[in-house]
């Protein structure tokens, strides 16, 4: 390959990526505390105050007690444009259309977007619900609502509004600090918003319309706000009889009559104020988001979704080309060529790199333990170390992937003795110079968390083998290459279809295993990897992940063809 051709290919790739990234919306600017406070017209005149000036539970603005003492106080918050920084609901319906209905349903919703802009907010919401949900199975969407939707919602939560709605700025009777009761109202279907609000933000109650169903399938018909109100006891849900009720409205004013009837005063942000809000930091989530599912790795705004559909005709052949390069060419040629095709890999090695030396016969560092981000982890470790002799220990790898893998693979059986013997056999290959790459987490994790490391790999220390911790970080911009509930044989295709997937491979100093307990070695490897990446350590396992995302324990049968994810 000539140098001029390589430069031209790199230049074309940079221009294409720059244009695609320009269509993806950026993060909002830094937060501000200025919010316009607009009480209902029949209550009092408009005034201005920051959200942190919300009255304490059970008190008025001047501090007087309301509703019988310290037990009162409720915040009624609108989701669209209130709790969420964005007032547009299109990305959330598009995510459901793509993940539950497929690409064709997503394309149909995108083509209808110009028409949706001409409709009123309520009619547009009903039209999107019809296109998105018509014909979907209710139980199938139940999993998606818990496994896929929270990630997108949490990225859009306003830190200022959330803290104002849920904090307890004053002490109640007896010196105990009280948390306000928070009720959220949304014009989106309850099935979309309730799992995220109750499970991850600990919201007390949700007022939202239901989707009509027949025979376990959604009809795509969304009930009116009036029907939703008549279906429940609003006074009991809001707690209007127990104390002062303060509202935080949005730009769409869903359930406006509830604000007017029950709220003493209402805070409504202006458009400029809403744009200056900041997102809630992941470390401030009431419940950390460790696991989530779905293929979509971007916020599916109309522009970003259009960019995805425009990229697909080029992305699919590009993924096949990248696969062929990885499989057919030696690492010395495939790595630079993949970089020219937009797949970036960066290696950080300890000094001196004993594990990647030329004289492997004198090295004990042939066991590599890495965190698990995708199916390509062992390949990236092998390419970074420049060693095709490294074997990958996998669980439930598909037959097709076994045949196409450019490095040796072998299956783990979940039988501890048999798996230990198989790993020892791999290390004993070629006169004791065989290499092995293991992922002790047992499954992938997309977020900056490390699952519990199984100590099985550390039990090989009896043979005098040192363990090399390898820290891996994967960044994708369009598709996730892992799934817990989808078609896992497509994982490599989705990963390689990303315009610019990037891997960071960091080799850490070997851990000497002699005389140490296996569990202590596994914990030490996990600690070093977490420190190198800035990730948080957890005690969660593969079983925990699959119970949350797929409703099973992640045990693959002998005839299953799923990938280890």
Automatic annotation (TrEMBL):
Record GO cellular component, one term: membrane
Entry keywords, A to Z: Membrane, Transferase, Transmembrane, Transmembrane helix
Stretches for region Disordered: 27-67
Domain (Phospholipid/glycerol acyltransferase): residue spans on this chain: 366-475
Superkingdom of this protein's organism: Eukaryota
Record-level GO BP terms: cutin biosynthetic process
Transmembrane segments: 92-116, 320-341
Compartments where located: Membrane
One GO MF term: glycerol-3-phosphate 2-O-acyltransferase activity
Membrane topology: Multi-pass membrane protein
Family classification: Belongs to the GPAT/DAPAT family.
Protein name: Phospholipid/glycerol acyltransferase domain-containing protein
UniProt source species: Hordeum vulgare subsp. vulgare
């Amino acid at each position: 390959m000539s140098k001029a051709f390589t430069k031209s290919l790199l230049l074309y790739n940079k221009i294409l990526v720059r244009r695609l990234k320009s269509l993806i919306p950026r993060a909002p600017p830094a937060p501000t505390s200025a919010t316009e406070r607009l009480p209902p017209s029949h209550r009092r005149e408009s005034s201005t105050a920051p959200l942190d000036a919300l009255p304490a539970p059970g008190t008025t603005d001047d501090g007087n007690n309301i509703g019988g003492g310290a037990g009162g106080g409720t915040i009624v918050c609108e989701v669209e444009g209130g709790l969420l920084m964005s007032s547009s609901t299109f990305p959330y319906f598009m995510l459901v259309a793509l993940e539950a209905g497929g690409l064709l349903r997503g394309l149909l919703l995108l083509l209808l977007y110009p028409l949706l802009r001409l409709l009123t907010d309520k009619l547009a919401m009903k039209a999107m619900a019809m296109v998105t949900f018509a014909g979907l199975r209710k139980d199938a969407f139940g999993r998606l609502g818990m496994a896929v939707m929270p990630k997108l919602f949490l990225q859009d939560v306003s830190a200022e509004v959330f803290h104002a709605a849920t904090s307890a700025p004053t002490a109640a009777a007896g010196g105990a600090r009280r948390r306000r009761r928070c009720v959220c109202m949304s014009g989106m279907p309850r099935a979309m918003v309730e799992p995220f609000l109750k499970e991850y933000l600990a919201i007390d109650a949700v007022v939202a319309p239901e989707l009509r169903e027949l025979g376990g399938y959604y009809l795509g018909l969304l009930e009116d706000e009036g029907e939703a109100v008549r279906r429940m006891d609003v006074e009991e849900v809001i707690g209007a009889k127990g104390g002062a009720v303060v509202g935080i409205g949005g730009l769409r004013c869903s359930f406006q009559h509830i604000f007017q009837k029950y709220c003493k005063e209402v805070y409504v942000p202006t458009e400029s104020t809403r744009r200056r809000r900041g997102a809630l930091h992941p470390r401030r989530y009431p419940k950390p988001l460790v696991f989530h599912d779905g293929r979509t790795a971007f916020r599916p705004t109309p522009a970003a979704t259009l960019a995805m559909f425009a990229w697909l005709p080029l992305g699919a052949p590009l993924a096949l080309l990248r696969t062929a390069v990885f499989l057919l060419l030696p690492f010395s040629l495939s790595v630079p060529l993949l970089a020219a095709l937009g797949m970036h890999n960066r290696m950080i090695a300890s000094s001196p790199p004993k594990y990647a030396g030329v004289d492997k016969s004198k090295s004990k560092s042939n066991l590599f333990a890495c965190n698990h981000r995708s199916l390509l982890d062992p390949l990236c470790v092998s390419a970074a170390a420049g060693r095709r002799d490294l074997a990958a220990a996998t669980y439930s790898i598909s037959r097709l992937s076994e045949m196409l893998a450019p490095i040796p693979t072998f299956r783990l059986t979940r039988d501890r003795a048999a798996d230990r013997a198989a790993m020892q056999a791999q290390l004993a290959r070629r006169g004791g110079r065989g290499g092995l790459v293991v992922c002790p987490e047992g499954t992938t994790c997309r977020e900056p968390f490390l699952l519990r490391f199984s100590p099985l790999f550390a039990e090989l220390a009896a043979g005098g083998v040192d363990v090399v911790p390898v820290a891996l970080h994967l960044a994708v911009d369009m598709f996730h290459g892992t799934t817990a509930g989808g078609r896992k044989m497509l994982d490599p295709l989705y990963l390689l279809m990303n315009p610019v997937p990037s891997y960071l491979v960091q080799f850490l100093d070997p851990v000497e295993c002699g005389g140490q307990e296996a569990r202590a070695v596994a914990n030490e490897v996990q600690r070093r990897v977490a420190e190198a990446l800035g990730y948080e350590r957890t005690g969660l396992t593969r079983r925990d992940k699959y119970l949350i995302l797929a409703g099973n324990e992640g045990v693959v049968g002998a005839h299953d063809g799923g990938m280890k994810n």
